[in-house]
Amino acid sequence: TCVANRKPCENMLFGMGNPLLDISAVVDKDFLDKFGLKPNDQILAEDKHKALFEELVKRNKVEYHAGGSTQNSVKIAQWMIQKPHKVATFFGCIGTDHFGEILKKKAEEAHVDAHYYEQNEEPTGTCAACITGDNRSLVANLAAANCYKKEKHLDLDGNWELVEKAKVYYIAGFFLTVSPESILKVAKHASDKNKIFCMNLSAPFISQFFKEPLMKVMPYVDILFGNETEAATFAKELGFETDDIAEIAKKTQNLPKENTKRQRVVVFTQGKDDAVATKVTMFPVVDIDQNDIVDTNGAGDSFVGGFLSALVQERPLEECIRAGHYAANIIIKRVGCTFPEKPDFH
Q1: What pLDDT digit, counting tens, does each position of 143-192 carry?
Q2: Rounded to whole angstroms, how far apart are CA atoms 120 and 346?
Q3: If 259 and its partner were Cys, which of 59, 157, 191, 244 is the partner (CB 3.0–4.6 Å)?
Q4: Measured on CA atoms in the order 134, 336, 298, 23, is the torsion positive or negative?
């Protein structure tokens, strides 16, 4: 009933990923060097980063925000849509602890229908966002997020019903390190029912070290997101032999696809430059004064969130990209992946 006038309805957008609490602080180059971090990167925490989390928390201006790439994106999509509430559903695993309670509260405040798998063996995951100027180096300690179990959560009738209710699906590549079998189950469902399954390359390390699970899901991917660095790494791993981003997008679009009723769309963002998409080439980015940029952390997630909000309402690709740019622009001027009360997007 609610789709009649392209109005979104509850649980129409489904997201699954790593729910993390972002711990962000402004650091200096010495701090990055000490822990061997690049200014702009996303990595998974190793033993050598344990001290990093302890030191970051001791900094005077540390901020805590609900994070995790997919959760950020569905939250932004919900914010762009506003009403009804709970258009966005989110699945992921947390611990039974204080940080887990914060994530639950934040999801509720954002009107996202979050159904977490809760376990008490691992604490809720965290992500250290080490900010220097316009750059952010992200170090994720997945902990509980890494404990998501298909048979303990996704397969349960009540949960799978929520998956079936959706029309658009979005899972960041980051989740490939956690539960590729959960991703495949959702992706195959979308493909079989001619619904839209979206994925993100997420970070260079995904294409480098998780290429096998990534390529298993690729035939089911209707829309693929990524930034220029991720696109270049992906191209290298697949032996595309080109560093032209439009060319990489074209070759990615032509990779094998299960559901031939939908042609794959590839959307690569290039920071300050125009976004490249495979049906229509360049889309202008709204110009921002460098001085207005507070924090680029979450800009990619919010681009996807804006895009998804328009996609759920069956808008054309140009509109989806415009909504993506709009959302990213708002977020870039604020700390963390946070947003004002209402969007002003028409």
Answers
A1: 999 999 999 999 999 999 999 999 999 999 999 999 999 999 999 999 99
A2: 44
A3: 191
A4: positive
Catalytic residues: 301
136 forms beta bridges with 131
Yes or no: say if 214 and 207 are a contact pair by the CB < 8 Å rule. yes
As a whole number of angstroms, the distance between CA 56 and CA 31 comes to: 10
Strand-pair partners of 34: none
Distance CA 181, CA 250 (A): 28
Query: Rounded to an integer, what distance in angstroms lies between the CA atom of residue 298 and that of residue 192?
Result: 32
DSSP per residue over 317-338, as a string?
A: HHHHHHHHHHHHHHHHTSSSS-
Mean pLDDT of 292-321: 82
Structure tokens at 311: 């996609």
Place of tokens 């200014």: 39
Distance between CA atoms of residues 343 and 79, nearest Å: 7
Q: Return d(Cα 294, Cα 333) in angstroms, integer.
A: 5
pTM of the model: 0.90
In a 13 Å sphere around the CA of 108, the CA atoms on its Cβ side amount to 7
